[in-house]
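Input sequence (296 aa), recorded before submission:
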Amino acid sequence: MEFKHLQTFQAIIKEGSFLKAADKLQYAQSTITLHIQKLEEELGVKLFSRRGKRTELTVAGRTLQNHTDQLLYRAAQLQQAMTDLVAGKTGQLRMGSVEPVASVHLPALLVEFCGQYPKVRLTLEVGITQVISQQVAAGTLDLAICSSPAANLGLAFELLFYDPICLLIPQSHHLATHKEVPISLLADERLILTEEQCPYRNILEKALIPYGINPFSGIEVMSLEALKKMVHHGLGIGVMPAASIASPPPNTVTRNILDLDLQLPIGLIMNPEINISGSALDLLAQSLRKNLSTIE
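Predicted structure, token format:
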């Protein structure tokens, strides 16, 4: 059943005749007749009967009339919803992000985006790169902000900024007196690290092992907030993204490691096979590029 046939049926009822419906819709009268014939063939009923020059609805025609307005209204709503979706005005978006990007950089950005597109529903999944990149590859997330994903996932990675890594040290610790901490002085220190699959930790391990230092000293924490509190209470030296400690906890200081430039590349990952041009997802990706690429 084609909607244009229902629109023709509706026009005949409103205009009172096939001829007037043809004028209204700017169709030839033969086209109007053909639309009704096809509609009757599909439904298996006669919709109109003629009494002299008058055209009247049959019982089946009156039954269809009771549903036509609602069907066409819903079709118009659906068409508008699809138009809005393509224009980026509506839709449901699922994004992922690593910390501390999710808590430090995204809130203000998402406030602005959701203010511009209030009908777009947004879900944010926070996790490590390994997990959220697999979700993007599986299609359960539309995009993510994280470090570069595994090559076998087939995702596109667009670098946005570099996230530096630094040390969080108790103020009373003897290393707090250094402006930058020499690598050799970390050999005998208790380092508090993020979880094993965390890319921030992986960068530190790769940097220190060539110096004969195994950074793992028995303490790993999945929560950056918990890690900061442990340092605050003097449990050890924390290794963290600099963005997560822009305001260090009381009685702690931040320090870089001397001669090491520890930075994690952070970017936008998406499935390159999905065409998002003009969609709400495209608008979100544009917003992420615009705002995150300016981070220094």
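Checked by second reader. The radius of gyration is 32 Å.
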